[in-house]
User: Fold CCA tRNA nucleotidyltransferase from Ureibacillus endophyticus.
Amino acid sequence: ISEDWDFAIRVIEKIENAGFEAVIVGGAVRDHLLGIKGNDVDVATNALPSEVKRIFSTTVDIGIEHGTVLVLDEGQPVEVTTYRTESDYSDYRRPEQVIFVRTLDKDLQRRDFTINAMAMTKDGQIIDLFGGQQDIENGVIRSVGDATVRFREDALRMLRAIRFSAQLDFTIEEKTLKAIQQDCDLIEFIAHERIAMELSKLWKGKNVYGGIQALGESHLDKYLIGNYKANEQHWEKFHTTKSEVGWAYLCLLNREEIQDIFDFYRLSNKDKTFIRNVMNAYNSLLKEWSIMDYFTNDLTVLETAYDFAVWQRQNIPFEKTEIKRVKENLNIQSVDELAINGNHLIEWTSKKRGPWIKVGLDAAIIAVLNGYVKNDEQTLKEWYLNEFTNEG
Ligand code: ATP
Ligand code: MG
Assistant:
C-alpha cells in the first residue's frame, strides 16, 4: 500500500489494538485501485465514536451525530467513521439520523456505487462485496443494489453518478441510467449547494463532455439552470483543474442567465468575481486587450477568456503562450510596486482625500505600464504635477 497512507495505517493499528476492527473505505480504496493519487483517506470502524475518542488523545467531533471523529494523533488528520446504515430516508434526501452497526457489510451496502463500496484492510486486502473491482476494470458506474430504490433514498446520487462518470471517464451502467431517467425530477428535492458541489467536481473531470452529455441523456439538465443540452458540443475540448473555470464556462455559454446561475447554485463571491472578470476579459479580447487588462487580471482569468474565444472560433491573432509572456514583462506587477501611493498625491497637492486619488493613481499606473514615465518617485511627481495641476 501507498506510503502516503502510513498515518492512516497507524490509526487503524491503534483501533485494532484496542480490540476493534478498522478499514480504509470509499473513495480512497477506489482511487488506490485506479492508481490515482486521491485526496483524503477515510477509515471505518465498528468502534462507536465515544470508543474512538477514548483510543486517541487528539480528536475533533466533526460529525459525531453521523459517527465521524477526526483523529489528529498521527500528524495528518484522518476521518474515522463508525459503521452505520441510513434507514428512514424521507423527502428523497439523506437522513439526519443514522444507525450505528457492528458489521462492515451493512456499512458498505449503504454506499452509492460499487466502485465506492469497497474496503481495504491495513495489509492491502480488498473487501469487495458488489463487484466494484470488476466495474473499475470495465469503467462502469453501477448502483449498489436496486438503482431505483437507491436514488429514491437519496436523489443526489443521480448527479453523483454523472459526476463520477465525468471525473473518471466511466460509463453509467444501463439500469442505473434508466433509473435516473425515470426519477430525474427527484433532484428538485436536493439543496442547490449540494448540486453545485457535484458540478464543481464534474468540471475537473477527465471527460467533462461525456458528463454534459450524460446530464442531457439522463434528463437531469431539465431541472438545472444552464442550457446544458443545447450547448453540449461546446464542451467537447473542455479541460480544467479549477472548478471556477467550469463555472465561468457555463456562464459564458449562458450569458442571459448569469444572475440565475449565480442565484440557483449559490456560487461563492470568489467564484462570482472570477466569472465576472472572465466575462469582462472575454469582451475586451474581442476588441483587443489593453495593457490594463493584462495588469488587472490574473493569468487564469486571461487564459480562460482566451480559451473560450478559441473554442468559439474567434480569430485571436496571438498565441496563448503570449499571455504569460506579456504579463511577466509588465513594468509593474501590482499596485504595490508603483513607486507612489495616495499619500504622495495628497502631500504634493495639499488637497483633501477623495476620489481624485484613484483617478491619479490609475493614470500613473497606465503611464508606468506603457513606459511613458519611469517608476520612481521624483519622475512620477514631475509627471503628475504637470499632468494634473497648473503649478507644475
Ligand atoms: P471524492 O474523490 O470526490 O472525495 P469520494 O468517493 O471520497 O470521492 P465523498 O463524497 O467524499 O466521495 O464520499 C465518501 C464515500 O461516502 C463515497 O465513496 C461513498 O462510499 C459514500 N457516499 C458519499 N455520498 C454518498 C451518498 N449520497 N450516498 C451513498 N453513499 C455516499
Ligand atoms: Mg472524499
Observations:
- The pocket of adenosine-5'-triphosphate (ligand 1) is lined by residues 26-27, 38, 94, 111-112, 116-117, 154, 156-157, 160, 201 (CB under 6 Å).
- Residues 322 and 328 are 10 Å apart (CA to CA).
- The radius of gyration is 27 Å.
